[in-house]
Design a protein that fits this description.
Two copies of one chain form a homodimer. Chain A is mostly helical. In chain A, 65% of the residues lie in helices and 9% in strands. Chain A is built from eight helices and three strands; from the N terminus they run αααβααββααα. At the A-B interface, helix 1, helix 2, helix 7 and helix 8 of A face helix 1, helix 2, helix 7 and helix 8 of B. Chain A binds a DNA duplex (30 and 30 nucleotides) through helix 3, helix 4 and helix 5.
Chain lengths: 139, 139
DNA sequence: CTCAATATTTGATGTTGTCAACTATCGTCC
DNA sequence: GGACGATAGTTGACAACATCAAATATTGAG
């Protein structure tokens, strides 16, 4: 990959973008009385699609023990529920409560508002960007 | 912006990418015995370009008091130095030590290695992505 | 000189994250 | 069926991160 200038150039720019946005999540989260990690959890759990805690740990790429506390706090706020797993009695599946689903919708609505710089791209570049990113994410 | 589907679509994908990469920084950081926040600090301070603490807080979009502890830990490891500001005696400027500069170079080298998915894009898409992102970041 | 504004630090507090150790359950192998 | 290793989740100890409010020191304007 070292001998592949366009890939490295594109990736460097993505790094810059990622780091420049790293600070925005805490701000956005605070407005909803959430932490960044809690936002990430709500983002991952879709309404009506329970997620085992272990899988959540993998999605967050963090230790399973970390998920316990994270879920404790979200559950104590009534945003998610622990449900015993159907087949395997070791697992607990996480489900959004109605309140949680509403907050998630609000969260996603706020996250989805693109920063002005995206709107300043030409229509063609916006479509190209969308196409390339979707290819990048699915592979 | 609500009535601008391509911008929103592109931004949604960037969000996904951002969240999917959120977990990688801790891993990369740990390999160098750093925390994600410390990586971000080293990334921001370029060799030979001292940065006032206040400006660092702005770049990290965090509280100034947070920077104190962050800098304390990096300084106690000999990676950066506090220097009294030239003009204003209230400010302290942060400078990389030689050790810090070496670690920063290593950090950036590791961060710059693109994930395989980027390499799977066609050469044309890689160039397009690079072009669009550079336009996005400069505006 | 006085006073509001700014840069940094300190202390209190809550969250995130890791690791090691523990319990409960599952699956497999004999 | 019973022993045993693997897996899901929890707990406790601990360090780092992050915020706020309060304190200090310095600056710059009036």
């Amino acid at each position: 990959m070292k001998g592949n200038p366009p890939a490295c150039g594109a990736w460097d720019l993505l790094i810059q973008l990622l780091l420049s946005q790293r600070g925005q999540l805490p701000v956005l989260a605070a407005a909803l009385e959430l932490s960044p990690a809690q936002c990430h959890v709500l983002y991952i759990i879709e309404p009506g699609r329970p997620v085992p805690m272990k899988q959540l740990a993998v999605s967050l790429s963090c230790d399973a023990s970390n998920v316990t506390g994270l879920v404790d706090r979200l559950e104590s706020r009534g945003l998610i529920r622990r449900q015993p797993g159907a087949a395997d009695r070791r697992v607990k599946e996480l489900e959004l409560t109605p309140t949680g689903a509403r907050l998630r919708a609000e969260l996603i609505a706020r996250m989805s508002t693109p920063p002005p710089a995206v709107g300043r791209l030409s229509a063609r570049d916006q479509r190209e960007l969308e196409r390339i990113l979707s290819r990048l994410l699915q592979s």
